Amino acid sequence: MIKSGSGNTANIGSINNIDDIINGRGVFSKLGESWFDDYWMNYGKITISDKNRETKKLLL
Q1: Kind of pairing between the strands at 12-15 and 2-4
Q2: How far apart are CA 8 and CA 30, in angstroms?
Q3: pTM of this prediction?
Q4: Domain region containing 22
Q5: What is the pLDDT of residue 32?
Q6: Along the 60 residues of the chain, how does pLDDT read in single tens digits?
Q7: Are 56 and 22 in contact (CB under 8 A)?
Q8: How many Cα neighbours within 13 Å face the side chain of 15?
Q9: What is the Cα–Cα distance from 46 to 30, expressed in whole angstroms?
Q10: How far apart are CA 22 and CA 10, in angstroms?
Q11: What is d(CA 45, CA 39) in angstroms, rounded to the nearest whole number?
Q12: What span, in angstroms and rounded, lies between the C-alpha atoms of 56 and 26?
């Protein structure tokens, strides 16, 4: 799981499994750097609709 650092900014704070990152198995490993950048530049701002048409923030 990835989470922001301080909770009030969109900086990257930590990762839980360093082995995945070292071995190229991170959350964005198959999506690429542009998806990684886009996700973090828009962290906490992207919303999605659920099956009841209610919106929620998209967070990994």
Answers
A1: antiparallel
A2: 28
A3: 0.50
A4: 2-57
A5: 92
A6: 555 555 555 555 567 788 988 999 888 899 999 988 888 888 778 888 888 989 988 776
A7: no
A8: 10
A9: 20
A10: 23
A11: 9
A12: 24
